[in-house]
Design a protein that fits this description.
The protein contains 1 helix and 8 strands, in the order ββββββββα. The protein is mainly beta and 135 residues long. A hairpin with a 7-residue loop joins strand 2 and strand 3. It is globular, with a radius of gyration of 17 Å. This is Cupin domain-containing protein.
Length: 135
Amino acid sequence: MIVQRADAPARFLNAADPSAEWACLARRGMLHSECEAVDLLRLGPGATVAHRPAEGVEQALYVLSGGGEAVSGGTVRPVGPGDLLLAPHDCRLTVRAGETGLELLTVRVLPARTIGRLPARIPELPEEQRMECVR
């Protein structure tokens, strides 16, 4: 798996809002699992990130620092460090950063209904690249 450092340059989530940054730590092609991506999001005050059913993934969002609110189905809930938000594939969820901003670690995975239709993905290296485990 290829992992990018969290302090590496980030991209903007929305070009119109430079206070919302995104850094991909690992992506599907790098992961031999049903994981779509592992991302680090840094939202400036008032910036938002949305989870939409059309994206076809489920998502876990873990609040690392800062504060804000999560809005889903008309319910508004405050969020802070240590909170975990779970968004099923058919969920609409918006996370808005509060006045101190918000830093999130997200893991996006394929839903169970999709995983059940896929062949198993097992990483295999050519024999010459394999290392024997020394115990």
